Amino acid sequence: MAQPISTQQDLPGVSRPAHRIASAIVVAAVALGGALVLAAVALWFHYGTAVFFEMIESGIAACF
Asked: Would the pLDDT of 41 be above 80?
């Protein structure tokens, strides 16, 4: 069987900071996603559905 090149014993203290960084990235991604959804809902209520969809459509068309 193949043996791992490095083990947890070889790299002391690496798992804790890496876990904190990964958790922070996940929390930031969830917060950003929530903010985007909130912004979309706010625009929907402010401009109405027709204008909202036209703005999304023109934005997508501008990308291509």
From this structure: yes
> What is the phi-psi region of residue 48: left when phi exceeds 0, alpha when psi lies from -120 to 50, beta otherwise?
left
11 within a domain of the structure (yes/no): no
When comparing pLDDT for 30 and 46, which is higher?
30
pTM attached to this predicted model: 0.54
- Whether the pLDDT of residue 38 is over 90: the answer is yes
Looking at the 3D structure of the chain, how many domains does it have?
1
Cβ–Cβ under 8 Å, residues 15 and 8: yes
Cβ(37)–Cβ(46) below 8 Å: no
